[in-house]
């Protein structure tokens, strides 16, 4: 790891420590760096403090970075995070067009301290067929397709 990369990860760790010690969230910190190496955002997990299961460090960092640049598109940016992103965060990273993620701990490290990212990966790999995790059903597709067709006719930006 380069000195610059290590310093960036240390910033994410320090941010995580702040909120972790205040019982606002777990040991998760993240930051977004633009293509010039400028830090756009530094965030941590605030799930407990915000009462928001989506308030993961990566999501919070992405939200802050997109607000700062005024765009949903973080092309050219790199995300540093103290742990391998969960499936939700991976989705946000991909949607925001970040192509590089530098992470610290592995999913099994998170499992060892009680986090259940592995359960989500297993659910996805099962083809979403484990109703003990989540029952997911397709219903009312025709009605919803009308909405999709209306959007398509409006020639809106696809993101």
Structure commentary:
This protein is of the alpha+beta class and 159 residues long. The chain is 46% helix and 14% strand. The chain has 7 helices and 4 strands. The protein has a 4-stranded mixed β-sheet with strand order 2-1-3-4. β1 (29-33) and β2 (39-44) form a beta hairpin. The longest helix has 19 residues, at 3-21.
Helix count, DSSP H or I runs of 4 or more residues = 7
- From the N-terminal CA to the C-terminal CA, the straight-line distance is 33 Å
Query: What do the pLDDT scores average to?
Result: 94
Order of helices and strands: HEEHHEHEHHH
* Percentage of β-strand residues: 5-15%
The percent range for helix content is 40-55%
Largest beta-sheet details? 4 strands, mixed
Which of globular, elongated, flat, extended, rod-shaped describes the shape? globular
What's the number of extended β-strand segments? 4
Q: Please list the strands of the largest sheet in the order they lie side by side.
A: 2-1-3-4
Show the helix and strand layout.
Blueprint: H1 3-21, E1 29-33, E2 39-44, H2 47-50, H3 57-69, E3 78-83, H4 87-95, E4 100-105, H5 107-112, H6 117-125, H7 141-153
Parallel strand pairs: 3-4
Antiparallel strand pairs: 1-2, 1-3
Structure described in brief:
By secondary structure, the protein is α+β, with helices and mostly antiparallel strands.
What attributes characterize this protein structure?
159 residues; four-stranded mixed β-sheet; 7 helices; alpha+beta; 46% helix
């Amino acid at each position: 790891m380069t000195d610059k990369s290590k310093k960036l990860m240390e910033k994410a760790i320090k941010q995580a420590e702040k909120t972790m010690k205040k019982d606002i969230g777990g040991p998760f910190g993240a930051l977004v760096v633009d293509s010039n190496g400028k830090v756009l955002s530094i965030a941590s997990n605030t799930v407990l403090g915000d009462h928001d299961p989506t308030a993961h460090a990566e999501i919070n960092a992405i939200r802050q970075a997109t607000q700062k640049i005024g765009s949903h598109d973080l092309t050219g940016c790199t995300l540093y995070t103290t742990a391998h992103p969960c499936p939700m965060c991976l989705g946000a990273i991909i949607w925001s067009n970040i192509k590089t993620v530098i992470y610290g701990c592995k999913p099994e490290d998170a499992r060892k301290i009680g986090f259940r990212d592995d359960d989500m990966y297993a659910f996805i790999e099962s083809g979403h067929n484990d109703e003990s995790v989540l029952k997911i059903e397709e219903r009312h597709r025709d009605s919803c397709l009308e909405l999709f067709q209306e959007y398509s006719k409006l020639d809106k930006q696809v993101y």
